[in-house]
Amino acid sequence: FYLKRNELNEHLGKDEKVTLGFAQVGNESAWRTANTDSIIKAADHENVDLQLKNAHNNQEKQIAIMREFIKQKVDVIAFSPLVEHGWEEVLQEAKNAGIPVILSDREIKVQDNSLWTAFIGSDFVEEGRRAAQWIVDHMESSKDTAHIIELEGTKNSAPATDRKLGFKEVLENHHNLHIIDSLLGDFTLGKGKEMMEKALQQFGSEIDIVYAHNDDMAIGAIEAIEEYGLRPGIDIKIISIDATNKAFKALSTGKLNFTVECNPLLGPQIMQAAKELKNGREIPMRIITSEETFTQEEAKKEMKKRNY
Ligand code: GZL
């Protein structure tokens, strides 16, 4: 009788070394830095041959990197898609080459979901709901109106689309909460600051709350609010998502009011999935990471335990 090589290895309890091509979206935020570190560390720890390339927030570049991996005949491709659309062609090429694809941290919208094998990341709609729920729970009275500025992440990316959706879903039941403007901050501190400056020029002290889709844009908004002469966290409340140490610092100084965690430490799960796929084992289609939320009080305790 004949055992396929990988079955023989499995039988002997020896998995074959995996070559994983990872097309990282960019280095736009502190979250991304922690995510990339986690992937590199986990590959090293799991003895995975990792080829990680950075697409610098450019979809054409990300597709070109994936094509390189197909040419190199890597065992598995993983990527964090910059935006939700435009992946059919390169994913079909990977499928034709027999290379399974893991979606890391961000999902995509394709007609044929057999073009990707697994998604490892968070529920962004829930993150948006949690951000809005904090506002609802902290309004003096449900009669008070609140004017909200939304700083959106990268346009058409899954986190921006879904965090917007989840936030709006909660606001639908609270007509006293109004988003008076949504501006594109592209998940970066610089752009977040620039958009907040614009919002302050237009609305000034009429703004009660800022909802930033990530901590980096929230920090940018804090700088803009201070330069404008108002007190962030007091005159204008600020809520963000990610829970990186930037947020914990701002929470502990009272300049940020709340942050919703989005876990960047996906490396171990990605390596595990890649090894399962390489050795012909099935893996679940969706692996959602667990997450918390942090107030100013909770931040003071939590920040000692975190290293990103
Ligand atoms: C979320 C991730 C987002 C982070 C941002 O999983 O895709 O992209 O929230 C990062 O900080 O830029």
Automatic annotation (TrEMBL):
<protein>
    <submittedName>
        <fullName>Substrate-binding domain-containing protein</fullName>
    </submittedName>
</protein>
<feature type="domain" description="Periplasmic binding protein">
    <location>
        <begin position="26"/>
        <end position="281"/>
    </location>
</feature>
<comment type="similarity">
    <text>Belongs to the bacterial solute-binding protein 2 family.</text>
</comment>
